[in-house]
Design brief:
61% helix, three-stranded antiparallel β-sheet, 6 strands, single chain
């Protein structure tokens, strides 16, 4: 295995769910070079990829489908914050308004991420009264996966920029 290919694999193992652009940035390599080695590693079964919401994420082969989807979502700061908020509450539940206020996002932004978390089986959405209530669907398993995701400063800055733009666009629409 070449030095570059070994570096790609080592980064994927150390950073499960890393998306392609973050992988390129972390390795400080040319896009085509990383693509070549990723393709070879996938062909050899050394890594697997999965596309989620416009990004291709990479994992070592031991992750099951639920874990791959969950980790890919948890790579996004707002989704991670929603789950952390739910897990920090006493019964792993909150209303949508409480969650939006606690993590500092617009309700529309929260709704976007909650829809994906519900589809992945990480969050349950209920409406026992007029308000939407959110609950962590698999608190123990989700907490374990949250521990796996430790985003880099660069990833957090990209997430914050995206959150800022979402807020500005939501304000412009009002």
């Amino acid at each position: 295995m070449t030095e570059t290919r070994a570096a790609v694999r080592a980064h994927v193992v150390a950073t499960p769910g890393v998306h392609f652009n973050a992988l390129v940035r972390a390795l400080d390599a040319a896009t085509g070079q990383v693509q070549y080695h990723v393709t070879r590693l996938e062909r050899d079964g050394a890594i697997v990829s999965e596309r989620h919401h416009g990004r291709t994420h990479y994992f070592e082969p031991g992750y099951d489908a639920f874990e791959r989807t969950a980790v890919a979502l948890l790579r996004r700061e707002t989704a991670r914050d929603v789950l952390a908020h739910l897990l920090d509450s006493d019964d792993a539940t909150a209303t949508a308004g409480e969650a939006a206020d606690a993590i500092g996002v617009a309700r529309s932004t929260l709704s976007y991420h909650v829809d994906r978390l519900v589809d992945a089986g990480l969050v349950e959405r209920r409406r026992p009264d007029r308000r939407v209530h959110l609950r962590a669907a698999r608190p123990e398993r989700t907490a374990a996966l949250l521990a796996v995701v430790d985003p880099s400063l660069r990833d957090r800055l990209v997430d914050r920029f995206t959150r800022l733009m979402d807020g500005l666009l939501a304000d412009a629409g009002d």
